[in-house]
Design brief:
With 140 residues, this protein is mainly alpha-helical. It has helices at residues 2-20, 25-46, 67-98, 103-121, 126-139. Helix 1 (2-20) runs antiparallel to helix 2 and helix 2 packs antiparallel against helix 3 (67-98).
Length: 140
């Protein structure tokens, strides 16, 4: 049983890592989900103890399951849900703004926007740069 669960954790984390390296933002989110599910399964199996439910009062001499592992996993699931919702909303906004989810295309569009902003601001004008350097030298 332990070997089977270990293989499942390895497949989940390996698949998630592979998807994180893709250029599509939806696949990146799916990769984050797979890694988080693999981590949750790992935490559950690492702290698994067979026993009675951890409900008070505990009878003397009875083995009980560790409630901390269950609480940590439940918290991790809730955090993963929140992060996934945030990532999906950000991806939606990126798609509305750029009509693509490919990271290479987004990087090229960002470079073009940066060049346009520099040309509009006159950052390429060497006379303005020299005047700014002289003003800084006088102020110092």
């Amino acid at each position: 049983m332990t070997l089977l669960v270990s293989a499942a954790v390895a497949v989940l984390i390996g698949s998630g890592s592979y998807l994180l390296l893709k250029h599509d933002l939806i696949r990146v989110v799916v990769g984050v989900l797979l890694i988080s599910n693999g981590a949750n399964l790992f935490i559950m199996m690492a702290g698994l103890r067979r026993g009675a439910a951890p409900v008070l009062p505990v009878p003397a001499g009875v083995d009980i399951a560790d409630p901390l592992v269950q609480a940590l996993t439940l918290t991790a699931i809730v955090i993963t849900f929140g992060v996934t919702a945030l990532l999906l909303s950000l991806i939606y906004r990126v798609y509305l703004a750029h009509a693509t989810l490919d990271t290479d295309t987004l990087a090229e569009a960002e470079e073009v926007e940066e060049q346009i902003a520099e040309s509009d601001a006159g950052a390429d004008d060497s006379h303005d740069d020299e005047a700014a350097l002289q003003e800084e030298g006088k102020a110092a």
